[in-house]
Fold:
Amino acid sequence: MINFQYVRANDVADAVRHIATDPTAKFIAGGTNLIDLMKDDVERPSRLIDISRLPLNTVEETTDGGLRIGALVPNSDLAYHPLVQSRYPLLTSAILAGASQQLRNMASTGGNLLQRTRCAYFYDTATPCNKRTPGSGCSAINGLNRIHAILGTSEACIATHPSDMCVALAALDATVHVTGPDGERTIMFADFHRLPGDTPQRDTNLRPNEIITAIALPAPRFVTNYSYLKIRDRLSYAFALVSIAAALELEGGTIADARLALGGVAHKPWRDTGAEAALRGQPANQATFTRAADLLLRDAKGFEHNAFKIDLARRGIARTLTQAANGTPQSQADKKVR
Amino acid sequence: MARTSTAARPSKQTIPTQDKISIALTVNNVERTLQVSPWTTLLDALRDHLELTGTKKGCDHGQCGACTVLVEGRRIISCLTLAVMKDGAKVTTIEGLAANGALHPLQQAFIDHDAFQCGYCTPGQICSAAGLLAEGKAKTVNEIRELMSGNICRCGAYPNIVAAIQQAMGQTGEKS
Ligand SMILES: Cc1cc2nc3c(=O)[nH]c(=O)nc-3n(C[C@H](O)[C@H](O)[C@H](O)COP(=O)(O)OP(=O)(O)OC[C@H]3O[C@@H](n4cnc5c(N)ncnc54)[C@H](O)[C@@H]3O)c2cc1C
Ligand code: SF4
Ligand code: FES
Ligand code: FES
Structure:
């Protein structure tokens, strides 16, 4: 870890002032991703702006019946918040599928969105990586790419976004509230994370001088028929190979509305509104679910070590939609997939 | 995970260093003042500055749980926490769990169930389990296993660790 300066922000305006005057500075919230990356010299900020004491740690109901989640609410508190457990159980489930309880106690809502890829080459400063050093090349395309993306990749980068929480937020139509030198703006969740294209160094559309203040959720839906299924190399405390968030609104045996988003398969949480449209108006059965999975994966492309993910995702989607339709969401404690 | 040797770092650091910062921590009910660099982790502050070496460094990257301590009663990973960020906080380590000469129920339970072999992961396991008891979310064996998954035991003492936690839950009035 390189030497750096430390400053504590007094309020949001102070935090923005600090970051605007020093482009090599970084915010620190829970520290669980940033400190890890600094220890490996992947991140080398000259100054850390500690935002962890800012009063952005409340969960409040909004006038439209939704929820406003402060950017500093710890992942564990959010998962166990009574309003989240009762109204957005898909979000609770996705958060509890990620990391460990110690890490969730530290990890912030805003930091979770901005966590960086777990591509091993990104972490290894001795190897080329376009995300870490633009223009140096991608070591993963012809390297160890078992955990890498199958959707939306580019020749420059095939990394995945590792978050579980963000997959649920994508499915639930969250919005991201940010503040910068020019004031506040709101970013739709689908527009927050980026595909790699030829600028994989940019994970998101957050500007370098902006701070996330809150995540907002619309009024609750999909409280009964939902599931978050995370498939990984061991049953807990491992990143997803493929994860699926599914939510349905059923009328009789027919799907009135659907949400479908995947994690571990792309540079961003992968929500496919086309696949959702293909579910709408259809009977909630295997044929429908498989058709939606095939549609979602129509452009999937495997690399040397990760082609298995395409079939894994196809089956996982059908399984998760079945769990959602049956109202038997995947338990994050009892790991049996039913 | 890949490590970077110091040799791979650019030789010239242009970033100015900052004087040490004075912070106060209440560690195991004793107020301590210490001078730390901004980059000193809470783990290093405990072990190297306060000589509380019960808390262990396993991976130093958040992946093993050996460094688990309680901050304001919540279990956290001290290797990914900067000491300066916890200025003013109340920290409990494995050295602070016993009270009035009596072992903490979890310490006794770990002995009763032989819940360790080499013992390297044990301080982290016990602090993590203390956090788990305080949270009150684990009721079943599956839930204990899941909510303890952030603590790796290379000796594989897991079944006995779960049994020890179940025993301590009974003693502290939790359902097992
Ligand atoms: C061993 C391990 C296992 C893990 N497993 C999982 C897993 O299975 N699933 C999963 O989803 N996650 C997992 N994680 C990742 C974890 O969820 C993230 O590290 C965490 O959510 C990041 O939040 P933080 O507050 O600690 O961020 P920090 O490390 O403090 O910050 C991360 C980045 O966000 C920026 N930032 C933070 N807050 C703001 C803000 N409000 N505005 C603007 N910028 C901000 C920082 O500048 C930094 O660049 C794991 C982490 C570890 C170490
Ligand atoms: S996949 Fe992306 S992050 Fe990984 S080596 Fe290639 S450019 Fe870097
Ligand atoms: S030493 Fe902190 S988690 Fe391993
Ligand atoms: S007892 Fe040896 S690592 Fe757990």
Notes: The radius of gyration of chain A is 20 Å. Residues 279 and 288 of chain A are 7 Å apart (CA to CA). Chain A touches chain B at residues 1-6, 28, 31-32, 35-36, 38-41, 46, 48, 50, 52, 80, 99-103, 105-106, 120-121, 123-127, 235-237, 331-335 (CB under 8 Å).
